[in-house]
Amino acid sequence: MTGVNDNCLLWDMNMAGDDCEIDTDACADNPCALGRTCLDLLPADEVSLGRGYNCSNCPPGYNITADEKCEANSNCTNTDGSFTCNCLAGFRKVGSLCQDIDECTERTSGCDQNCANSDGSFTCSCVYGFELIADGKCNQTIFDVCTLQNLTCGYGCDNTTNPGTWGCICREGFQLDIASGNCSNINECDANVCTQNCQDTVGSYICSYYTGFKLNADKTILSILYLVTACVNPFYGDNCASQCSCGPGADRCDPSRGCVCNSAWTGDNCDVDVNECEVNPGICINGDKTCVNEDGGYQCNCGSGYEKVSAVDSVPCADINECSSATTNNCSAKLVKKVMVIPVDVTLATKQ
Ligand SMILES: [Ca+2]
Ligand SMILES: [Ca+2]
Ligand SMILES: [Ca+2]
User: Fold this and answer.
1) Which sequence ranges form a coiled-coil region, renumbered to this chain (predicted)?
2) Alpha-helical regions (H) of the chain
């Protein structure tokens, strides 16, 4: 008998054999949710845990749900003809997966003192003598903690940073001067924490971005290059907050400047024609041409009796030889009239 022996269930459901001496493969039935790997346990562990297997954690980018399944840390937004997957708050896309953001190491938690990262979130806490208030801040409630330890500290002290030893501490964004026990602002900009512009502030710092760039949607990190992207058409400008609405004369929507016009158009939206005849009176170079403005361009036209012989404006118009073609003169019509008159005169002359 090699199957699971019902009589063995009293102490282990994954033992077989008449004497429950055979350890069966508890993973044979694939008991773990999709994405989790099953690990068959040793008999001793099976007894202590009350089950024959362990399921691995979900792969990176997935969360274990209440029913032990792996759930991608994203939600789905339907779009016209397709869909997009957006990471849930507290996660960001790394490759194709949504991974937890470590707000503690990236210093975006806002915690004054202690920060504990968790999947999709984080928790702030305060040392003894302080109580946690809104937004991760710590409010001092007991004021003689340090003096009782014979310490003079500008901010506070605790014995958890170096377990068993009391020492002065500073809140996040400040550094300790060990000699005086005082805390001073850290200039994070010196450590190149920002991708582009950095402004140091007391206790923190502010990153900003060149015109034509913006922080990615999961703006929970301020210091990693790939999280800043150039504006994507049709957006442009500071933080990509402006939108191009370009007219017919636009060459492109520039991520920094917005609509960039070709030479024949102007205006913020490239929808105002340039009157080349006014802007550049000499544009139709030879005096025998007349400039005519048009939307999106201009024409250099020849005067009456002249014709263009080249598309190049600097080439003068040529005289039209109207006599060379019956279609360009009316001389033959006059000739016909004379011919008709002559016979009359002849008749009269003959009669006289
Ligand atoms: Ca987190
Ligand atoms: Ca600072
Ligand atoms: Ca024009």
Assistant:
1) none
2) 43-49, 145-148, 276-279, 331-351
Among 115, 108, 110, which Cα is nearest to 90's? 108
Between strands 15-16 and 22-23, the pairing is: antiparallel
pLDDT at 337 over 60: no
Residue 8 main-chain phi, psi, to 5 deg: -85, -15
Amino acid letter for position 93: K
Which ligand is located closest to the Cα atom of residue 198? 2
User: How many alpha carbons lie under 13 Å from residue 211 in its C-beta half-sphere?
Assistant: 6
Residue 104 φ then ψ, to 5° = -70, -50
Separation of CA 199 and ligand 2 centre (Å): 8
CB 216 within 8 A of CB 227: yes
Q: Which tens digit of pLDDT belongs to each residue from 114-151? A: 999 998 899 999 999 999 999 999 999 999 999 999 99
At 333 the pLDDT is 54
Of 273, 236, 286, the C-alpha closest to 256 is 236
State yes or no: cis peptide before 248, omega within 30 of 0: no
Instruction: Give tens-digit pLDDT for 263-300.
Output: 999 999 999 999 999 998 888 876 568 889 999 999 98
**How many angstroms separate the alpha carbon of residue 160 from the centre of ligand 2?**
24
Q: Per DSSP, what are the bridge partners of residue 252? A: 260
Q: What separation in Å is there between the alpha carbon of 179 and the centre of ligand 2? A: 21
Three-state secondary structure call for residue 95: coil
CB-CB neighbours of 44 under 10 Å: 9
Cα–Cα distance, 202 to 154 (Å, whole number): 15
188 Cα: distance to centroid of ligand 2 (angstroms): 5
φ, ψ for residue 225 (rounded to 5)? -50, -45
Alpha-carbon radius of gyration of the chain: 43
Report which of residues 140 and 53 the model is more confident about: 140
